[in-house]
Amino acid sequence: MSNIRHALNVKREEDFAKWYQEVISAADLAEESGVRGCMVIKPWGYGIWERIQRLMDDRIKQAGVQNTYFPIFIPLANFEREAAHVEGFAKEMAVVTHHRLIADGKGGLIPDPEAKLEEPLVVRPTSETIIGDAMSRWVQSWRDLPLMLNQWANVVRWEMRTRMFLRTSEFLWQEGHTAHATREDALEETHRALEMYRACVEEDLALPVIAGEKPENERFPGADETWSIEAMMQDGKALQAGTSHYLGTNFAQAANIQYQDREGTQQHCHTTSWGTSTRLVGGLVMTHGDDDGLRVPPRVAPHQVIILPILRDKPEDDALLAYCEDLRAGLAKHQALGEPVRVLLDKMPGKASAKRWDWVRKGAPIILEVGPRDMENGKVAAIRRDTLWNTESGKLATEFVSRDVFVSGIGQLLEDIQDSLFREASDRRDANITRGVTEWKDVVQFYKSNGKYPGWVEVQWSKPTGSALEKVVEQLKAEKLTIRNVPRGSEPADGVCIFTGEKAVERILVARAY
Amino acid sequence: MSNIRHALNVKREEDFAKWYQEVISAADLAEESGVRGCMVIKPWGYGIWERIQRLMDDRIKQAGVQNTYFPIFIPLANFEREAAHVEGFAKEMAVVTHHRLIADGKGGLIPDPEAKLEEPLVVRPTSETIIGDAMSRWVQSWRDLPLMLNQWANVVRWEMRTRMFLRTSEFLWQEGHTAHATREDALEETHRALEMYRACVEEDLALPVIAGEKPENERFPGADETWSIEAMMQDGKALQAGTSHYLGTNFAQAANIQYQDREGTQQHCHTTSWGTSTRLVGGLVMTHGDDDGLRVPPRVAPHQVIILPILRDKPEDDALLAYCEDLRAGLAKHQALGEPVRVLLDKMPGKASAKRWDWVRKGAPIILEVGPRDMENGKVAAIRRDTLWNTESGKLATEFVSRDVFVSGIGQLLEDIQDSLFREASDRRDANITRGVTEWKDVVQFYKSNGKYPGWVEVQWSKPTGSALEKVVEQLKAEKLTIRNVPRGSEPADGVCIFTGEKAVERILVARAY
Ligand SMILES: [Zn+2]
Ligand SMILES: [Zn+2]
């Protein structure tokens, strides 16, 4: 709406990448650290991540998976196994070579040449191999299976071009690693983890996703099957929001994870791994953000309701603060979405209107302003972040409600906001998946002519492999496209392959991606 | 008791250090990782740490401190500030010098010489300086104060001699860093954090501690005051279980953390920092462990009640499992110590008696064995881990209780166990602090003749400084002794200094320490 004065300088339609950076900073989520490729996650951003962690962790524990902690350093030998099969192996990783710093005699510091490690250590890019080593020690018999482990940790992958939350040299994640007696058990776990991700990301983060299997070329190296959940960002690009891998016995063979079965025979385990990361916070921004900043779904909002007393630096402030504290306590007694309502009474100094806009940009689901007159009338001025503007008047859609009505309705209100953010995102997602395109030239045309943010296309293909698949990947790459996944439970194929002209065997989603 | 056959091979009285290692392994807490100085924290050990984290984090948030995340890598420049004041600066730290691994052409891998970092990075030994940098950006005016941040993170300090949980190259901790407008505010925060640690460690971990100020020689470098909580281990040694520092304006000056006060004048902030770590798990072992393994206080036990069905691989097992599941659900509906009871129905295959001893060694507070006959009679066989043996008969003090009575009493029972572990530890602590020693030769004699685990001695001193203090420290060191702290709220001094013969000004605790 042109008569609305939005809180951000950059609009989504103008420059999505620049808008993204502005939200990260305006919502106080994170900032550059001065250390190459690493970010500082600020309290509001970290609070969102903590909420995601807690909700995901509950689901992980619910499934009987156990949390553990493995060392940050991985010996070179663990990578040599992998490198043995790769010609011209080269990987971007942070390598520790010394264990002491000394003065260089010129006012600076240097790694002490006397303290060079005999064998360098790598800062973990993933814990796959070191956890595999432990599994080979911990699994002896069928009685030890399934062994289901998870770790919340920081990992490092040296990145040249970084983007906050989406691609940083250091990031935070969880990595699940499980070992099973049979293929069936391991596949069941692969799908359980995928479904857990779908449920957490859709229900908690309100990001609609499409769960499906990745094509061969997008598989995790060494995986027999890779599954993903894919979310659509507001610029129509796909964000892989979580992956779950069935590794067959490949990793068990490399790491020697064996068990004695009931008949006394040594068998290799079937293993899985699955992960999600702080990337999800980036997905949250690109899905729920608007031209006023972020909108945080209530389930993952560190604070769901902000109470802003309109203070005047006068003796009357005390009564107003007492009234607000009482309101806070009343709200905190209520439940919303299965947990006590999280309310913050913001008493920091500063003008109420400036603070209001801070919370709008941060995306707190509900902002309550309370002035002396509201207190007298037993009212609150409530702003719903998901429906911020009265589009007719171009003003904030503030609602003046009786305090009692507001307090008793808080559970329902937060549920409504959670639902409406999910619905808005899934409506947009559905409207931006184009089906029934049967000619490659129409795909090309679609991405050429369909505006700035064209969305995804569903096509049918013959699932080529080897060099035929490589050709397809090149063809897509020329248009900056990738195959996202083969959606779980999609309609059977009934046409011909858009790439090869052969009989199609399944439907795939094609998109530009982060 | 000599007629009891304990579960461990080594007894505490025989070899405390060896006993400690056996508990770590028998209770399945952690193991060596194969990576120098780093341990793998196994599910039961990590579960205890997660409980400590959650309870501590609740207290941290309660105080209005905000969690954040800062990069694992710290630029050399941050240490150069510190090194500038230190002659012959040399610090054990993990130094990252390269960002790529490549094949060496001989089947091995090496850091790519082409990928040498222009400036090496240090893996954080603490985040003091990088958080200080952020504070200098985030604090502008008195309105931004107090700024209270905390971080849960892994840190690395290269250690030559390591001991699980007590001293490892990598460990997990939380570090609080706060900035305030005035000395008074910062001191108040220093004491709030100390009191928070005391409460968490005493109430949640059931470790009695003595809170007090450290003498000058034990202060954190750069601190104006360092406070600690000290716990007594069963070998009479002290374990520093948490510290809280008042840093004056020293760090604010080094990191340029300034604010404009209400009058418009630029002022340096007064800062604090405070930390606790996975060391607490080591303290838990050395305080509550016994000759049968660990005893975990209910508040920090990942599972408080273990249900062990006595299965026979027969069709009747199904009914027994259903009965146990019902029992589990019944217990889980109850509250203990302010939270829902955490119950595990252990269905893993294996002999019930072997599994019982596993849980005894792990230290689950209550183990319930349920066989077909118990089911028929509506009973459970309950083992309380804190009072495991009937010392007269030398047998397990198993109690046969009606299921209903057990279920309805679970809250009280767990509370009793929590209290009794704390009482046992504080009685032992109190019995092993010797007061009234006024001559140095008696201190020396005390540690020579008072058995293997002599405990602590309280003495009076004149609080010497500078070289006089150094002399005292040397004198203590010769006996392997250290000053732990000046206990908060102890009696005023009324004698002469045991070291200098001058008039004493305060009482200090002297002990051997971890
Ligand atoms: Zn499948
Ligand atoms: Zn003080």
What does this structure look like?
- Chains A, B: Keywords: Aminoacyl-tRNA synthetase, ATP-binding, Cytoplasm, Ligase, Nucleotide-binding, Protein biosynthesis.
- Chains A, B: Its EC number is 6.1.1.15.
- Two copies of one chain form a homodimer.
- By secondary structure, the first copy, chain A, is an alpha+beta fold.
- Helix content of chain A is 33%, strand content 28%.
- The first copy, chain A, folds into three domains: 16-96 and 124-288, Bira Bifunctional Protein, Domain 2 (BirA Bifunctional Protein, domain 2), CATH 3.30.930; 303-416, 3-Layer(aba) Sandwich (Rossmann fold); 432-511, 2-Layer Sandwich (Translation Initiation Factor IF3), CATH 3.30.110.
- Chain A contains 14 helices and 29 strands.
- In chain A, strands 3-8-9-15-12-11-10-28 form an eight-stranded mixed β-sheet, with helices on both faces. A five-stranded mixed β-sheet of chain A has the order 19-16-20-21-24, with helices on both faces. In chain A, strands 4-7-5-6 form a four-stranded antiparallel β-sheet.
- In chain A, helix 2 runs antiparallel to helix 5.
- Chain A is globular, with a radius of gyration of 26 Å.
- Chain A starts with 15 loop residues before the first helix and ends with a strand.
- The model of chain A has no long low-confidence stretch (mean pLDDT 96).
- Chains A and B meet through strand 2, helix 2, strand 3, strand 4 and helix 3 of A and strand 2, helix 2, strand 3, strand 4 and helix 3 of B.
- The structure holds zinc ion (ZN) (2 copies).
- One zinc ion (ZN) binds next to loops of chain B.
